[in-house]
Specification:
By secondary structure, the chain is of the alpha+beta class. Helix content is 29%, strand content 30%. The chain has six helices and nine strands. The radius of gyration is 23 Å and the shape is globular. The N and C termini lie far apart (95 Å).
C-alpha cells in the first residue's frame, strides 16, 4: 500500500514538472508577437512617422528627416538620412551586373532587449562588403570587419533593401546613410534564431578600389 502511494506521489510530481515545463515553453508565434509588439513600442517611443509607399515614391524616394519619416519596404522600416544624388551629380548607383565593394560604418541595437549589440562607428577600420546587382536582385557578403567576425560573411537581407534607392560617393561629407528597423526574418543569424528585431544606423562609402565615374 505504501509503495503504491509513493508511486502515485512520484507520478503526480512528474506530471507537475512536465506541466510547468510545457507551460514555460514559448512558441514561435508568441516570439513573433513579442517582436511585433517591441517594434510597435519602439516606433511610438521614438515618434517615428511611418509614411505610405505611394507618398515615398511621389516624393522622389525620400523620407523627411524633420518629420522623422520612415517607409515600410519589404518588411523593413527605412529612413533615408542622406542620399548623395541630391547633392552630387557624379554619385552613382549599383547597376545591373555590377560588383561593388562598399565600406560600412554601422551601429546595431536590439530593440526588444534594449541592448547595443555591435558597431564600428569609432573603430580604426570600416567593415567591407561586396554587393552584386543581378537584374535588380541584390546579394552581398562581408569580406572583413566587425559584422564578419561576429556573424560570418552573410549580409542580413534587411541591409540590402536600401541599396536600390541609394547612390554612392567617396565624399566623406556626403555619404549615403540610412536608419533601418529589421525584423528577425531579414536580420542576422542570431536574430533569426532568437527572434528579435534590430535598429541599424548605416553609412555606405565606395571602397578605394572602386573607380568613380566622372
Amino acid at each position: 500500500m505504501l509503495k503504491n502511494k509513493l508511486n502515485s506521489l512520484l507520478l503526480l510530481l512528474i506530471m507537475a514538472v512536465c506541466f510547468t515545463s510545457c507551460d514555460d515553453t514559448v512558441t514561435y508565434s508568441e516570439m513573433k508577437e513579442k517582436e511585433r509588439d517591441a517594434v510597435a513600442a519602439y516606433i511610438s517611443e521614438k515618434n517615428i512617422n511611418v509614411i505610405l509607399w505611394e507618398d515615398f515614391v511621389a516624393n522622389d524616394s525620400t523620407t523627411d528627416m524633420t518629420k522623422n519619416e520612415y517607409v515600410l519596404v519589404d518588411d523593413v522600416y527605412m529612413q533615408i538620412v542622406n542620399n548623395p544624388k541630391k547633392k552630387d551629380p557624379a554619385a552613382y548607383g549599383i547597376n545591373d551586373g555590377d560588383n561593388v565593394d562598399l565600406l560600412i560604418r554601422y551601429y546595431e541595437y536590439n530593440i526588444q532587449d534594449g541592448d547595443t549589440l555591435s558597431g564600428n562607428l569609432y573603430a580604426a577600420d570600416a567593415d567591407e562588403m561586396r554587393v552584386t546587382n543581378n537584374s535588380g536582385s541584390y546579394t552581398a557578403t562581408f569580406t572583413s570587419g566587425v559584422m564578419n567576425s561576429i556573424y560570418g560573411s552573410s549580409v542580413p537581407t534587411g541591409w540590402l533593401v536600401p541599396l536600390r534607392f541609394l547612390t554612392f560617393t567617396r565624399k566623406q561629407s556626403n555619404l549615403a546613410k540610412v536608419n533601418i528597423i529589421v525584423p528577425h526574418t531579414k536580420g542576422t543569424s542570431n536574430a533569426a534564431t532568437y527572434v528579435y528585431p534590430c535598429h541599424y544606423q548605416i553609412s555606405f562609402q565606395p571602397s578605394v578600389s572602386v573607380i568613380i565615374p566622372e
